[in-house]
Structure formats: C-alpha cells, structure tokens
Amino acid sequence: MSEATKEKPFSVFNEDGEIEAIPTEVDHFALLGVRRKFDLDFETLEARFYELNRKLHPDFFMDAPVAVRIRSLDATARINDAYQTLKDPIARVIYLVQLESGKLEENERTPPPELFEEIFEAQEAAEEFQGCVDEEEAANLRERLNAAMGCFSALRDGQRTALDRLGAAWDEAMEKNEPAPPEVVKKMRSILGQRNYIENTLTSLKRALEESE
Amino acid sequence: MAYSDKVVDHYNNPRNVGSLDKSDQTVGTGIVGAPECGDVMKLQIKVDDGGLIEDAKFKTFGCGSAIASSSLATEWLKGKTVDEAEEIKNTQIVEELNLPPVKIHCSVLAEDAIKTALNDFREKNGMPLVERKGHH
Fold first, then answer.
1. Closest Cα partner for A174 from A46, A7, A43?
2. In a domain, B136, yes or no
3. Interior CA angle at B40 toward A147 and A107, to 5°?
4. For residue A107, which phi and psi values (nearest 5 degrees)?
5. Of A105, A199, A204, the CB nearest to B61
6. Domain-embedded: residue B129
7. Residue B61 CA to chain centroid, in angstroms?
8. Tens digits of per-residue pLDDT, A101-122?
9. pTM of the prediction?
C-alpha cells in the first residue's frame, strides 16, 4: 500500500510527547490509522495497535501524576476497544454501518414474517426435542432439527457472502468519495437486523442436538 | 447481573405459555422481535362475545426478562377489553418487574407484541386500527 492511501492516524501524543485525551468523536479507524472501509488493511491495523499499546501501557505511567495515569488507562481502553471491534469481521461491519448510516436499533422492528415463522418452528421443535421421551418421536424431531440446522446455516452463510459483496460496493463508493448507494445501505442494515435472530436460532438448535448426545 | 425475584418467578413459572389458533377470527396474534439481541416473542389474545379478552398466550425465545415481560403481559391482558389492553405501557412492566435499564427493551418488546396482537384482532374484525406511536 502506498503512503498516499494511508490515513494519517490520530496522534495520541502531543508535541511534548505527553498523552492527549482522545476526543469521543475520534472513531476506531482514525484512532488506529486505518482507512475507513470494510476491506480492512489488517497488517496496518495490527502494527498500529501493538505500537500504541507498547507506548501507552499503564505500567509505564505508574510514577506519573494521576491525570496522566488516567489518560493512559483511558487511551489503552480506547485502542483495545477499537482493535477488538475492527479485527472481528462482523463487529467491524456492524460498527462501520452504524458509523455511516446511524444506529441499527433504529431499524424497523418488524421482521419478515416468513423468517419468523421458520424461527418459531425451529425453536419449538428444539424445545419439544429436549423434553421428548418417546424414541420414535425423538428420532423424527432430530431429523427436523438437523434439517433446520442446515437451512439456518445456509441462511447465515448466504448473509456473510452478501455482506462481503455489499461491503465491497460500499468501499468502492467511499474510494471515490461518493455516498454509499442507498440500496446497498438498506440491504446491509436489513441483513444485520436479522443476524441475531438467525444466530440465536442456530444456538438453540445446536444446544438441543448436543444435549441429546 | 441479578434478576429481580419477580423476573425469576415468571421465568421459572411462566404463565400462559402456548399458542392459540392463528386463523380463528376471535384471536389476535402479535409476533415481534428485538434485532439488537435476537429475542423473538409471539403473543396472542382471544376475545369473547362481550369484547373481553378471555385468554392470552405467549411464546418467547429470549432472555429471562423478555420471558417475564411477556408472561406478565398475558396475565394483565386477561379480563380487559381490547381498548383497555391498549393502555398497557412498557413502563408499567418495567416497574412491576424491576427491570434494569439494559433490559427495558424487553418490556418494549412486550408492549409491541400486545399492540400488534390487538391490531391483528381489530383488522380481522373490521375495526379501525390504532396507530402506533413512537416509544422509549
């Protein structure tokens, strides 16, 4: 990557080499000096994180005045939070989408009815299976749970592929300093809004199947 | 985080768990979800000839507070008219169950479920729908 495409990171130290308080509006990308995009430059992220972590660690400020110690703690917490968020692909997508287009909680709360029907069916089958003593019935239910597991796993995989594709389209717009296409934003928000329902259902199915083993 | 005694009680002994016939004209169904945590809730009411809610059932897949909120909601719904039920507020659920701030969205979910079920009943029976106001 050429120097020109690198973002100038927020400077945690002032000209005198003292730790600066990090303003709340400095986002994770600016703090760690990586470009604000979905397809992250992971090497730069990691290098910058370790570099800052080495310099800011509270152990180095044990003898410093209280105000400096607090700033070192705050800064360490901020860069940790930024690093943890940005290195995780899903956490990064959620963070960036919210940064660019507002909190996800403001999403419509009414989910697609077909998805919900399937979720209730799967969850109820999982519940039934856990309390089932009849062998034949249990075998039937197990089959249903496995089928549901396949459906929901495929759904999750499909979402991930779609998120990658949409993220790339969004990145392209950002590269050109253009606003993200509204339909891309809308689709990503909708996928992220459904994500937890699918994850929770998969967790229930998995738990039910594992407990029976 | 510790749950209040009332939440634990509703969680361990949920009232009115189950389903009613969705296609029954006297039944209103509300299915809602919280995208931030993935909890899903189904709440149903059955209205008798005199306009009173004679039965209420719920099915919630989510955290203890969401289960307790919907369980409590079904208890409160029984014996009320559809219009009286409209008056149930999430803040009353918060108060009754002592929900901490991070769990307030569970009570919002229950209120959403009630209002969706009531409108479903109204729609089925040719009654004017009640518009949803913003909450929180």
1. A7
2. no
3. 110
4. -60, 160
5. A204
6. no
7. 13
8. 888 776 656 677 889 999 999 9
9. 0.82
Question: Nearest CA to CA, how far is B68 from chain A (Å)?
Answer: 18
User: Are the beta carbons of A190 and A104 closer than 8 angstroms?
Assistant: no
Residue of A197, A203, A204 best to disrupt the B interface, most CBs of B under 10 A: A197
Active site residues of B: 37, 106
Domain around B91: 5-124
pLDDT tens digits, residue range A62-77?
A: 888 998 899 999 999 9
Could you give the C-alpha distances from A29 to A48, A114, A139, in angstroms and in order? Answer: 11, 37, 50
* Residues on chain B touching A199 (C-beta within 8 angstroms): 38
Residue B84 in any domain: the answer is yes
The residue among B87, B75, B82, B79 whose CA lies nearest residue B111 is B87
Closest Cα to residue A86, out of A23, A34, A156, A161?
A34
- More confident of the two residues A109 and B53: B53
- Check if the beta carbon of residue B45 is closer than 8 Å to that of residue B118: yes
CATH number of the domain encompassing residue B67: 3.90.1010.10
Residue type, A34: V
Give φ, ψ of A188 to 5 degrees: -65, -45
Asked whether residue B96 is assigned to any structural domain, the reply reads: yes
Under a CB-based contact definition with an 8 Å cutoff, are residues A95 and A38 in contact? Answer: no
C-alpha A105/C-alpha A96 separation (Å) is 14
Please state the three-class secondary structure of B5-65 as a single string.
Answer: HHHHHHHHCCCCECCCCCCCCCEEEEEEEECCCCEEEEEEEEECCCCEEEEEEEEEECCHH
